[in-house]
Amino acid sequence: MADFSVDEYVRPSNGEPIRSVVLETNDSVVVVWHAHHGQEIASHVHPHGQDTWTVISGEAEYHQGNGIVTHLKAGDIAIAKPGQVHGAMNSGPEPFIFVSVVAPGNAGFALAEK
């Protein structure tokens, strides 16, 4: 069993949002993200796996490709299926912190076309 505290992995940055890897196995990759107001997690895809975001704090506009945007806030869960475009911009005053679980661990990554 592995357990962790999100606070141990939060890494604020005034540059790009920081991605802190908690655990990486063949089964999944668990990451904690931290984005300040106005910072963006670039829209991307995982061609061979699902990405599940659990929002810990803050709020963001969640971009799903094809102009689809929804609002995420603390307590929400967003699931991007394999190949689905997803990304976010912190739209609130507080840090947007979430845990991402990509499964399987070799799901791949590619930036979405703009």
TrEMBL record:
This is Cupin domain-containing protein. Residues 33-102 form the Cupin type-2 domain. InterPro entries: Cupin_2, RmlC-like_jellyroll, RmlC_Cupin_sf.
